[in-house]
Amino acid sequence: MQLSRDGVPVLYRSSDLSALTNSEGKVSSLTAAELAKVDAGWKWGDDSHPWRGKQATIPTLQSVLQQWPHTFFYIDIKSPDADPTVMGQRLLEVLKTTDSLDRVRVYSTEDRYIAALPPAIPRFVTRSETRTRLANISLSHQCQPASQRDGEQWYGLELKRKVEVVEKFTLGEGISPATLTWDKEAMDCFRSQDKAHIIFFGINSAEDYRTAIELGADGVMVDSPAQAKSWQ
């Protein structure tokens, strides 16, 4: 989710319009009405561009919520230049207008957007807290308590995440690569201290999908739902 120039929440993943559309520049450079005229299928897919010229535009969040009034949505804030407070208020307005507060959960890779959400909006635990807790389990086998322990907590992270570990020494520091991986120890830790729900991102193979099921993940995010159908 990003904000248009006139502050309307719209749905487009990439930071620049040129990645998929026949336009260019940031989403925030155009109004919602202008974005509705952009061909969002212009560069999508292989060389055949199956959605080019098929009226695949950039929709507003409100229009999508109204079109599917009984569907639960996970909303990912990816707006690179929106003010977090403004983003939170605009999102709240749409969710109230469409009576959708009980069928969404909001995520962002940037903590500032989660921190600025109005209290009424359901959200994931920040990515930094999730990553830090998983790192403590994976690298030192320490089960760090959650920052909030009341009610349900939702966590989202990749099943496997490459990171750099920085070690401080007297004469400097050392940096070494490491991979944070969800396993039974991690799942047990997260679920031992609160009512935790865990969503794995970047599940794009049958092997990773089976691992997610074995670990008891509450859900997965895939790049291609069509491909994922063959894993079941």
UniProtKB/TrEMBL annotation:
UniProt-listed GO biological process terms: lipid metabolic process
PANTHER family given in the database record: EXPORTED PROTEIN, GLYCEROPHOSPHORYL DIESTER PHOSPHODIESTERASE
Name this protein carries in UniProt: Glycerophosphoryl diester phosphodiesterase
Pfam families: GDPD
Record-linked InterPro entries: GP_PDE_dom, PLC-like_Pdiesterase_TIM-brl
Top-level taxon of origin: Bacteria
Record domain GP-PDE: where: 1-232
GO molecular function: phosphoric diester hydrolase activity
